[in-house]
Design goal:
The complex is a heterodimer of chains A (304) and B (242). Chain A is of the alpha/beta class. In chain A, 38% of the residues lie in helices and 28% in strands. Chain A starts with a strand and ends in a 6-residue tail after the last helix. The chains are: A alpha/beta (304), B mainly alpha (242). Bound molecules: adenosine-5'-triphosphate and magnesium ion.
Chain lengths: 304, 242
């Protein structure tokens, strides 16, 4: 497969400490690639290395199949849009003037300014000084700047930071649409797992500077075996039967949770439970949340 | 690409009210110089040349350098604020264009300042009652001073790029200018970047001190190249920290 972004052994050291370690990122074309990891995992550092904002300690980066070096830096930047850390803006200028600066430097037509303003719904605020914008509006302006010039690669570092729920939803939908509508590839980082469930086709998970998972989103879900949840009338009877059958189980929110069984095994077990007077109310397959998957991958609890 | 970069640099300076600073502050050395001239008429007998010694004493010693420094600090301040380093360095422009565009803006400012000071010099000469127009030689010194100013501009631009503070580089320029004035008097001005303003303008002198225009030219070019290379190198090889 041809990847639009491919890194090999990408490493960043700060005074001897590896904050990004041997990362082999593989981002396919025209998709949304979610780059996830807890705070301080190395997401921003990795994205900054892709953009050449910070220098690589070890390894290499290829963008659009070309190894990035000093010579092709400008050509690559021309077809890349980015929003790193927090939105950049000249506060004493209006939103439109900010966009004009990017438009001039990227040498794209002035008409695109109106298009991107519309895309992020900022037409009404375009003539206000950016200093007076809310954080969400600045974030949208940053996104508009990144979209100027119809880049083939869009690198967004936590783009929904500071947006209200409606804004978050809107931006997610916009990101979701970009590959299909404009053929863009979006590499987007986030520490919110739920966010990725809604927009990513591929995910990469980084923890302590190391890439611990990278595949299709579905693969991440498959990675987590689903569980079977039972709600019964008589738990004591049910537990007795399960023990006799040699099936492990745990109590979760008042329900019994068992490992996933084959269909015929499930049918057999339900039959036995009914016969034994356990009284089955409900049988359901319980999908692990991305949160749980992540925790099992990283072996780490607490806030993400 | 360089002209494109300059166009955007120009835009970034919009609404800055910098022009008021540059219009207003040069009035001070003009007034101080004119006043000094009038108070010492018995000693200062060479007309326009004498007025120039007084005017340029204050201007080159205390004002020109810091004014250039303010301009350079402002040019970088807009980038230091609000994570603009990230966007500056991810635009499809070479580090040379980024630095040179800012440098050319600053160089333009050094020349514009001198033209304005020239106007103020003529006005103050008229006000203190000097006849005719100043000798062309003085106007030549004035413009030659802007070459010295360019060296200061390049140095300040490097400094303000590396240091986030607005005021610290301006203070350095002030101290540097004063030191430049003293070093220039000792005859070692060519080796001190801030002294080249004084030397070029022939400040506080009524006869040309620059016996060797070649030496001056070499010093100006040498420092300009040095500071530009340092500035561009910094952009190329230093991690961006927005
Ligand atoms: N300039 C620097 N010098 C030293 N260490 C740094 C520097 N920048 C980042 N780090 C360290 O590198 C690690 C990774 O930081 P990074 O900003 O990439 O994390 P992140 O995944 O983006 O986190 P977040 O979700 O908080 O944005 C952190 O432990 C951080 O302290
Ligand atoms: Mg980050």
């Amino acid at each position: 497969m041809e990847y639009i972004v491919e890194t090999r052994g990408l490493t960043k050291r700060y005074s001897g400490k590896e904050v990004v370690k041997d990362v082999d990122l593989k981002v396919p074309r025209s998709c949304v690639y979610g780059f996830m990891g807890p705070n301080g995992a190395g997401k921003s550092t990795t994205l900054k290395m892709l953009l050449g904002l910070i220098h690589i300690s070890d390894g290499q980066v290829a963008i659009g199949g070309e190894k990035v070096n000093r010579k092709n830096r400008i050509a690559i930047l021309k077809s890349t849009g980015s929003l790193i850390e927090s939105p950049s803006y000249y506060g004493h200028l209006t939103g439109r003037e900010n966009l004009e600066i990017v438009q001039t430097l990227k040498k794209v037509s002035g008409k695109e300014i109106d298009q991107v303003l519309k895309l992020v719904r900022m037409e009404e605020q375009q003539n206000k000084k950016v200093r007076e914008y809310s954080l969400g509006m600045k974030q949208r302006l940053g996104l508009a700047e990144a979209l100027l010039g119809n880049p083939s690669l869009l690198i967004l570092d936590e783009p929904t930071n500071g947006l209200d729920p409606a804004g978050i939803q809107e931006i997610r939908e916009l990101i979701r649409e970009l590959p299909r509508r404009m053929g863009m590839t979006v590499l987007v980082s986030s520490h919110l797992l739920g966010e990725m469930d809604q927009m990513a086709d591929y995910v990469g998970i980084i923890n302590h500077g190391q890439l611990i998972f990278q595949d299709k989103l579905e693969a991440l879900h498959e990675h987590s075996r689903d569980n079977l949840r039972l709600r019964v009338m008589n738990q004591t009877a049910a537990l007795h039967i399960l023990k006799r059958e040699g099936i492990s189980c745990a109590l979760k929110e008042g329900d019994l949770e068992l490992p996933r069984l084959a269909d015929d095994e499930t049918a057999q077990l339900i039959g036995r439970l009914c016969e034994g007077g356990a009284g089955v109310y409900r049988v359901e397959e319980k999908q692990k949340s991305l949160e749980e998957i992540f925790l099992s991958l990283t072996g780490r609890r607490g806030s993400l | 690409m360089l002209t494109i970069c300059m166009k955007t640099e120009q835009k970034k300076l919009k609404h800055s009210h910098l022009w008021m600073v540059f219009a207003g502050i040069p009035l001070l050395p003009a007034v101080l110089g004119g006043g000094n001239y009038l108070n010492n008429l018995e000693m200062l007998k060479s007309g326009w040349y004498s007025l120039w010694t007084q005017h340029s004493l204050f201007y080159a010693g205390f004002f020109y350098g810091p004014l250039i420094a303010i301009y350079c600090s402002y040019i970088w301040r807009v980038e230091h604020l609000n994570y603009n380093w990230n966007s500056l360095m991810t635009m499809p422009t070479s580090e040379w264009d980024i630095f040179l565009a800012k440098l050319l803006m600053a160089l333009r400012c050094t020349v514009a300042l001198q033209l304005w000071v020239g106007v103020l010099f003529i006005l103050s000469g008229k006000i203190v009652g000097l006849p005719g127009l100043p000798p062309g030689e003085i106007l030549f010194w004035l413009l030659r001073g802007s070459l010295g100013g360019m060296v200061t501009a390049a140095l300040q631009l490097v400094m303000s790029m590396m240091v986030r503070s607005f005021a610290a580089p301006v203070a350095v320029a002030l101290l540097g200018s004063v030191a430049g004035f003293l070093l220039s008097g000792k005859g070692v001005g060519m080796f001190w970047p801030y002294a080249l303003m004084t030397e070029g303008m022939n400040a506080n002198k009524s006869t040309d001190v620059l016996s060797s225009p070649v030496g001056f030219g070499v010093a100006v070019c040498g420092f300009l190249v040095l500071f530009t290379v340092v500035g561009v190198g910094y952009l190329k090889y230093k991690d961006v920290h927005a």
